[in-house]
Amino acid sequence: MPADLPLLDGRSMPALGFGLYKVPADEAGAVVDAGLAAGYRLIDGAELYGNEREVGDAVRRAVEGGLDRTTLTVTSKLWGEQSQSADAVRASFAASEAALGSPVDLYMIHWPRPARGQFVDVWRTLIALRDEGRIRSIGVSNFTDEHLRRIIGETGVFPVVNQVESHPWLPQHELRAFHAAHGIVTQAWSPLGRSRLLDDPVIGRIAAAHGVSPAQAIIRWHLQLGGGLTPKSTHPERLRENLDVDGFSLDDDDLAAIAALETGERTGTHPDDRQ
Ligand code: A2P
Q: Would you say which domain of life the source belongs to (predicted)?
């Protein structure tokens, strides 16, 4: 199993977790059961995904079955579509907290909302919730370096993680360098390019040369960049496969071939396109 990544606040979290985006609520419990049984200790959830009650129930089942809860990092993210006032943020957080259990290990701002200029105030509310002991670590998602500079500059508090879309088409080198300079963990969402990268012939050739699957080759690439990632699968055998990435490493030629795949292509919709 890949090593843990140290966090700026003195805590740590697994480099490799599994995501629950678009996992229907009636399947989420089984996915979490399978993920924990496979050995995952990082669960990447969010208010938006609509399955937090099922995720929390599956975690509680596992703990009743003997799993040490303190080994888990269960995460959630604030969506904040309607309002980002302190009261609204607290209400959204309270719903996630009730579903997942308190304290929440890692809570992130899902998207910055620059059009409304509120993400610094939202960040202040997350800092307060952390200081009240209801969140262990606070982070952000889909922030650019400009957004990061603003929250850091205006509050003095760094996010431990910025979860952003990243895969070989979109390696995010500049943002990763900014994160590294400040000790912020880069955590990739859609790390497999929503599965479309699995059919890439370069990835296929590299995977075959190492006797691994395309997904395993891409996951290895993420880990060798020094970041974390949360690939999603609803299939137990794929969840196990995605965690089984310690037996090989990509060499310089592999990394150069993957670097040449960069196109800047995004598989997800950026919030600025929606506002
Ligand atoms: P499924 O959930 O049916 O297993 P990303 O994390 O980049 O968004 O990619 C998720 C997509 O990749 C999902 O469609 C998932 O399908 C698929 N996927 C995840 N792991 C594997 C794997 N090891 N082999 C093939 N497809 C995978």
A: Bacteria
